[in-house]
Amino acid sequence: MTQVFADDGALVPVTVIQAGPCLVVQKKTAEKDGYDAVQVGLVEKVSNRRITSANRGHFEKAGIPPVRTLVEFDYDGSAKRRRPRAGRHLQARRRHRRHRPVEG
User: Fold this and answer.
1) Which of 63, 68, 93, 104 is the most buried (most CB within 10 A)?
2) CA–CA separation, 8 vs 84, rounded Å?
3) How big is the chain by its Cα radius of gyration, in Å?
4) Could you read off the pLDDT of 51-83 as tens digits, one per residue?
5) How far apart are CA 70 and CA 46, in angstroms?
6) Containing domain of residue 73, as a range?
7) Is the pTM of this model over 0.70?
8) Residue 7 lies in a domain
9) Is residue 35 part of a domain?
10) Per-residue pLDDT, 104
């Protein structure tokens, strides 16, 4: 947690998250896996001692360095635009929004 000042000078508590860089580790398809999804990993420095041999093989097959956090997102396999593939970098885009005070 940290805090920032709003335009009117009010002090607003915020939570800072790390959202990248991320890599596509695996693309799951309905034909092969029974569902469509994309497995994404957050790139962080991780010791090889902390990686299991099963995960090490998973990362080597994808041709990417080991990642600490793996998450799956549903993916509509029919989407033609920007198909995900293993090793592709993903970036979170920052959107500027005005804070909304929490009441109650």
Assistant:
1) 68
2) 42
3) 18
4) 899 988 998 888 888 888 888 888 776 655 566
5) 13
6) 19-90
7) no
8) no
9) yes
10) 46
